[in-house]
Queue: 3 jobs
Job 1
Amino acid sequence: MSAYNITSTHPAVFLLVGIPGLEHLHMWISIPFCSAYTLALLGNCTLLFTIRTDAALHEPMYLFLAMLAAIDLVLSSSTLPKMLAIFWFGNREINFYACLVQMFFLHSFAIMESSVLLAMAFDRYVAICKPLYYTTILTRPLITKIGIAAVTRAVTLMTPLPFLLRRFHYCRGPEIAHCYCEHMAVVRLACGDTRFNNIYGIAVAMFIVVLDLLFVILSYIFILRAVLQLASQEARYKAFGTCVSHIGAILSFYTPVVISSVMHRVARRAAPHVHILLANFYLLFPPMVNPIIYGVKTKQIRERVLGLFLRKDAKVE
């Protein structure tokens, strides 16, 4: 019992429920979760290794892709191992400070992913609308600065959250009705005035999603205009074909966010597990599909990966 004693400010540990109402199905639910996580690990590690070892891929587009793969690895690894421990072993306990760290990593890296997707839209804009200036605009120092800016923005926006949550007294028990330490799920256990946390959380989410998505859409408006001005249909297909993978990555990231947001507003009376499954889909889907999208649709990546495996098979023989 001592592990659950409430101190003057917070419990020593929280208890993650998992998926409320579906506890009896946790073992079955773990199968697609584990499969998705395994695919995310294999796919993103393969992308990083391929880009790292092939000098021909040290171009802006692939450097941004390497950033995306690294972010996806951290994003999925910050939550999935603990989720699987809940599903397989019933290990629901998470230390209070570990919970805050998980929440910080989860939300920070989600913001970083949005930033990198925006940077990739800028990369496609320059490549198609200003092709003659591509190498002079997207230099290695600028790419480094964009990466630093993405990290700085995420850390700056998320650093206040752990400190804001640490000041609350948690009188509604230690059980978090979720698979991981999501900000609002933790806030619901707190006593006192939580309005600032609620407003801050919504403001940051709206700021990131609306602002980044707006600039992505603007980039593609300019790209579409430039593509339609090309003389031949073949040139149009080729130019727009370079954007297909990025569009797929944008859809895989933002679509679950928008669906989850809409569901919270139009289906408030839906069972809790519906919202939690959607939230998990948002965490699992992009890291799993991004390597597949870029591996299948990007010729250079596809050729390098196939060449890597063919060389291994040749050595075995």
Job 2
Amino acid sequence: MQMEEDLDQQTLTITTRHKCAACFQQFKKKEHLVAHMKKSHHSVHQPKCGVCQKHCKSFESLREHISGPLAKAHCSSIFSQCGCQLCMKVFESPISLGEHTDQCLLTAPACLGTINIPHIDYEALQDENYIDKDLKAVAIDCQMVGCGSDGSLDLLARVCLVDEEENIIFHTYVEPQISVTDYRYELTGLTEELLIDAMPVREVQEKISQILYNGESIGKARLDGGKAKLLVGHNLEHDLDCLLMSYPEKLLRDTATYRPLMKTNLVSHSLKYLTKTYLGYDIRLGTHDIFQDCVSVMRLYRRMRSQEHQDDKTATSCIKQNLIFDKGKSKDLENMSPDELFQISTPNYQCWCLDSRPRNPP
């Protein structure tokens, strides 16, 4: 009789465990589940397993779930047959996967090399047909040379901007502000001759600002973006520092700090790794080609932006809803089901899929 009572008690304990609707982690007490939801910031914007629907903090976590040392056997088996190794989507059949892979696997853009011209301005920037396309983002990449006694200080020497259609909208070599001690030729391909009569930094700043702000006032751009462009790059803080420029943080899209693309310990991956892992081709096999890097970072951004998440919330409503979640009374939250807790939980980053929506909806 005592044994039966113990079994009944164990069964009751098992049935009363509280399971997270996003990551499936289980808790003995509801208050622990609520604390977990507040800390984890689960949302529909997190990478999700196409087999079991588990939400992961990053794509690296998702890869570990599917193919890591402790991968789930069922998910791993199905993904190995019908899953795309690049975008991590799961398809109905290997045939559907093959058709998808032809479009998902990209080829490396041609290298620009070290062209010996003063600079490139994209004439179509003033064309009405081009303006009507409403291309929202611009990607940037900079090349540095070394200064200082040991050549370890970065000095801007070259900059390139491309639009979403991978057109070069601006490219120039930059006049060194102080003496260059290391041109880093093996990495950059730059020489002293290429920087002779190069564009002064102030003029570079003016041209880039004109492209980015797109006729919008700085105040309006900082407030809600307005007509200003999104600036895409890898380690943008470093590039902007070398340009001696600033840009509204809400308009920056950095592949080095975008949480779904980071390591599980929130350390950045290299652009070379991200390009190979998510686009399927190699870059930086020799010198670092500025155009190739620029196009690759734009492709990464567009791939992340194109993700479809079933969420009707805008970025503003996400912030408001997160405040409600954080300030909600513990008892009220504990009375909610795991699915209801998941519905009011919001990410601690802005998902790039929101960029595909109108910036200022009516």
Job 3
Amino acid sequence: MKGEAGSTLHNEKPKQEGHIWGSMRRTAFTLGSGLLLLVAFWNSVTWHLQRFWGASGYFWQAQWERLLSTFEGKEWILYILGATQVPTLLFWSFSGLLLVVDTTGKPNFISRYRIQLGKNEPVDPMKLRQSIRTVLFNQYVISFPVLVFLYPILKLWGDPCRRELPTFHWFLLELALFTLIEEVMFYYSHRLLHHPTFYKKIHKKHHEWTAPIGVIALYAHPIEHVASNMLPAMVGPIVMGSHLSSMTMWFSLALIITIISHCGYHLPFLPSPEFHDYHHLKFNQCYGVLGVLDHLHGTDTVFKQTKSYERHILLLGFTPLSESIPDPPKKTE
């Protein structure tokens, strides 16, 4: 019997090795094919966008030079408008539209996409007012002075209001680097804030909303707002010595994405907020923005076993994912 067992194990080992190598080859083939398709698609998209950028480039350069002439000698005003007021205006415009749904439940064609059913229907008005006051404080008492103070530092590194606008490809490179830096800095600062030493005194404030809404994207303790909201988004433009146009677009995009992540609705044709919504629900999963570092550190393993993970896709139709991929029925005693 012992000899048979040894023979069986001996025969199984090559089979397992063959299975592993076969899996590796299939994985390599799949990843390689996907990479080639991605490169081809990316080249096609950038070629078309570059044509548009080139065709309109003279127009935007002319508009920028007109602005520089208008604010000649007072470029700092242009910087303040672009780095603070334009992103802030977009933040309140987008989150304001969502607030209408949060407070009234209407229009129904949006409220039906709610992720956590039965929550914030409608939102608590007293809790909302308190949150809005905190958001305004973070924006105008913290973010505004910090960005104003940053201007002379940026001028030493590379004048953000220089005459020549960045090229299309340079902006794409900046955007990729900004995103990477934000992912790394936000993930680790966010995980640090979940340490018991910092959570109770600092980060717990943000987690008062277990079912988040768009406007609370910036609802945080001042220390968290600087360390985890501002720095991850600011370091990229500082390191790259970015043009004001790149900074304005990046800050605006970062705010829109964080509103979507907190909005509480999985809307058609917009990035999925399921990942961060699950973080607010469970607290100890899904710390990052893109999910790359969560995958590497295993901080999304529980999330991957849920229906929320199945729904974590780009919705390309109009049927709510809560209907097409419903939660399993609750067990009754």
